[in-house]
Structures are given as C-alpha cells and as structure tokens.
Records
---
Amino acid sequence: DGGITQSPKYLFRKEGQNVTLSCEQNLNHDAMYWYRQDPGQGLRLIYYSQIVNDFQKGDIAEGYSVSREKKESFPLTVTSAQKNPTAFYLCASSRGLAGPGETQYFGPGTRLLVL
Amino acid sequence: AQSVTQLDSHVSVSEGTPVLLRCNYSSSYSPSLFWYVQHPNKGLQLLLKYTSAATLVKGINGFEAEFKKSETSFHLTKPSAHMSDAAEYFCVVRGYSGAGSYQLTFGKGTKLSVIP
C-alpha cells in the first residue's frame, strides 16, 4: 500500500527539550509539507520541500527545523525555541509544487504534548 | 492574496437528511478548490477537487460540490447523511501566488454532527 506514515502517534516533550517527528512516504512524491493544526484554526504551514536537500519556510517556521536528505523522508524537529508546541502535526506530500490541481495527501498525524 | 471562509463552524443534521457545508473563497486567479474530511485524531482525506473542468464535482462517499464563480462559493453537499459522516471538513483553495508558485490556504473547518 502506498501512503504516508508518521511516528510516533503521540509524543511528549519536556521543557527545553528538542523532539523530532518522523514522516515517511512511499508515493514517490517530490514535494513534502509539515502543517500544524490547532483547534478552530485550520492548518498552518510550517515548512515545505520541493526536492531533496531543499526546503522553504512556511507561515509559522519559527521554533521548528527540518531536513530532506532522502526523497522519502521529511523529519520535523520541534526545538526548545517553540514556546507553544502543543498541537496536532500533519505531514503531507504531493507529486510536485507546480500545477493548479496538485493534490496533497496527508499522513495520520502526530499529537505533541508538553509535560 | 487568497482566503477561504467556512461559514459554519458546526453543523448538526439528522441521519438520512441532507448535508450542506458552506465555503466561500477569494483568489486573484482561477483557483483549484478541494474538500478534505478529518475524523478524530486522523489525517485529512481528500473528498473531491475542482480544477476548472466541470463545475459540479462528485467525490467519494456520495459527496459533491458545485463551483460557482459568480458567488465565489464551493459548497459541499450530500443528499442523505450517514452516521459515519460525522467528522470535521476543510475547504481548501490552491491559487497562483506568482513566480511559478502555488499557495494552499485552508479554511478553519466545519464540524459535522449526525444525530441518529
């Protein structure tokens, strides 16, 4: 089955700690994305990557970092600089960035909670 | 700049009655429009999308949406609600933002409750 996997499903962070959320896709998609979801606010874009070894900041990149060393993988690190990290994090991928009808496919999400 | 407004944060219907989830958008260029569904603690699943072909778009699970340019609307409908339709629904617009880039903007979501 092709799809996007995210792990872990739940993640707990202590104050001052960096944590990394995993996202893997086997859809052979070039583009990958990270979103943050807060209740009543829809989804907000954190980072996106069009190709390997390239990524761009989204609307709310402060306190987050990413890497794209492999096409299949796009891990997100929530750093200690992110003061309000409690949220539901969604990873997505698409064939590319260009094209008006390009569809994004989503993983099941990781819920991050602060201890 | 583009934006999406989902007119209702919460809609409640009885099982077997029609569903209407309203979405209005603004975009400088001809946009693509999507509806996604999210069940609790799950990712988003694509229901349907509009990309400048037929204005009436049919999706999965009996849902459909009509693109009305004059009203800048893309409302989601279903003739008969099922208990399994209870979820949160997101309207999304994808528009050209210049320099070969496209921007995706999500609505804030409409939570659909289905009463037995």
Note: Chain A has a mean pLDDT of 91.
---
Amino acid sequence: DAGVIQSPRHEVTEMGQEVTLRCKPISGHDYLFWYRQTMMRGLELLIYFNNNVPIDDSGMPEDRFSAKMPNASFSTLKIQPSEPRDSAVYFCASSPGQGWNAEAFFGQGTRLTVV
Amino acid sequence: GEDVEQSLFLSVREGDSSVINCTYTDSSSTYLYWYKQEPGAGLQLLTYIFSNMDMKQDQRLTVLLNKKDKHLSLRIADTQTGDSAIYFCAESNSGGYNKLIFGAGTRLAVHP
C-alpha cells in the first residue's frame, strides 16, 4: 500500500476562495483523522471518522470548515470561504483500530497558504 | 479535559543521550505514543507503551512511564544527526472511540 495519500501537497489561494483538501486512507483502515498543524497551536485534531461516519467534529474551528467521507477510500476537508488564519499544514491520518492497534499513519500533509 | 504538554526545544551533542519529557492529564489514558516528524513530512510512530507498563526498550529508544505523576519520557541513546526532528507525545484510551491527543511537539536539534 502506498500509505495515506493527500492532495494537493501545496495550495495557495486568495482569501474568500473555497479550498478542498483530499485524502485517500490506507485500504482497510476503519478510522480517518484530519489534523491541522500551526506554529502557534501545534497539532490539532479537527475531526475523525469511523467507518465513514463522523464521530467527533468538536475540533472543527467554525462553520466555514466541513469534512466528508463518502466512501472508505476518500475524504475531503473543505474551507469556504478561506481566511489567512487558516494557513497551516493539514494532515490526514488513518488507523486500523483501537487500543494497541491505534497507530495512526499520516499522509505527507497539505501546506495551505491563504493570502 | 485531555491535555498533553511537552517542552518545545532540546539541543544535544551528537553521541549523547537525549531525554524528551511529556506530561498528560487524562488518567484514563490507556496507550501513550511517541511520534517523530522530520522536516516536510508527516508523523511516524516511533514506539508506544501500554499504561500498565513502566518501561519499554526498543534498540536506542527507552520509554519510561510514571503513571502516578502522569509523566512519560523518551530517551534516545547515542543521539545522531538523523534524530533531529520534532517528537510528539500522544495519548489515547480504549474506553471509547480511538482518538489521539498530541502534545505540541519537542524540536530536537543534534549538533556535532
């Protein structure tokens, strides 16, 4: 398996535009996570899914952020409208299960810059 | 609530041992993890420890857990320049859904 695949690797957009980040988890993993990393806040959990169902979205900053997982092999994180303070590296991770098997495998991340 | 804290920076000389510390607040934490992030990359799991263990050793890595004080440490023996990275402590519990809570990360700089 190629690991967790995120696209694009880099995104530069203007304030107010819609941004969509994409993630393909590792096949067979039941959990999918979206994290945001900034210098100020470190690594924050935004939302996670179990078997394509959103379980906890309490980390989503505001209504401008939405995430979907239409099937087991694809998830999106959308920001509409984007703002400069959304600039960060967004990571997607997937995990096969709970407990000792809870290792999260991370993608390379999408570096988002909103100007 | 859940919170994981780490010191932000650590600088060591090549060949010395590095000790990265972490404290957590959730007493129900069942598993504790150390992840490594190299520049421009995602996080990779280094090692994990179950909460009923005090110590775990894996080659150059030693994890110590003091459950009473909710303190976790990662010791890297014979630190090399390739160990320069950000190290994240994370916790989860198996009481419910899988959810990893990360610390802010400790940036380890190894100098000659």
Note: The radius of gyration of chain B is 14 Å.
